[in-house]
Amino acid sequence: MLELASFAHPPAGGAAGRAGRPGEPPADPPRPLVLVVQPHGHRIGFAVRGELDVDTGEQLRRALGEAVNRAVSGVDLDLRGVSFCDCAALNVLLALRQQALGQGKSLSLRGSACVERLLALTGTRAMFARRGMPAR
User: Fold this and answer.
1) Residues 20-48: what's their mean pLDDT?
2) In contact, 52 and 60? CB cutoff 8 Å
3) Is residue 13's pLDDT more than 50?
4) What are the pLDDT digits (tens) for 38-90?
5) Which of 18, 95, 109, 125 could crosslink 119 through cysteines, CB 3.0-4.6 Å?
6) CATH fold of 32-127, please?
7) In degrees to the nearest 10, what's the CA dihedral of 70, 72, 78, 82?
8) Neighbouring-strand partners of residue 40
9) Contacts (Cβ under 8 Å, ≥6 apart) of 75
10) Which residues contact 59 (CB under 8 A, 6 or more apart)?
11) Cα gap 45→43, rounded to integer Å
């Protein structure tokens, strides 16, 4: 059975570094999450820009879940525009992968450096195909 990720340390200056002192605004306000959906034949292309974390995970889950349901053969997820990704977001991606597999579809993923690092550190990279390459 698939075990969802439950730990990680955000990089310096990432989500953990956004909080200012009590009563002060965050040092770096989070960038809004931008989702772009483009149908490509039997697959749906889904590009994400911004930060993927506990605050944006539900938005990603709803939008990507709908894309998985509508796609004929699967979704190609482009996370190269993601500037931060934590384990809450990874759990969303793992759950959506399970949803796709349960429907006989695939979820391919191309990530930014921070996404690829999280996948490597958690041992989950092989679970997501790269576009044109099967997942293991």
Assistant:
1) 80
2) yes
3) no
4) 998 999 999 999 999 999 999 999 999 999 999 999 999 999 999 999 999 99
5) 125
6) Transcription Regulator spoIIAA (3.30.750)
7) 30
8) 43
9) 43, 44, 45, 46, 64, 67, 68, 100, 105, 106, 107, 108
10) 33, 35
11) 7
Decide if 63 contacts 94 (C-beta within 8 A): no
Neighbours of 127 (CB within 10 A): 18
Residues in CB range of 25: below 8 A, 6 or more apart: none
- With b for 16 or more beta-carbon neighbours within 10 A and e for fewer, the 24-48 pattern comes to eeeeeeeeebebeeeeeeebbbbbb
∠ at Cα 90 (88, 104), nearest 5°? Answer: 130
Per DSSP, the residues of 4-59 read ------PPTTSGGG---STTSPPSSPPPPPEEEEEEETTEEEEEEEEEESTTTHHH
**Does the pTM exceed 0.70?**
yes
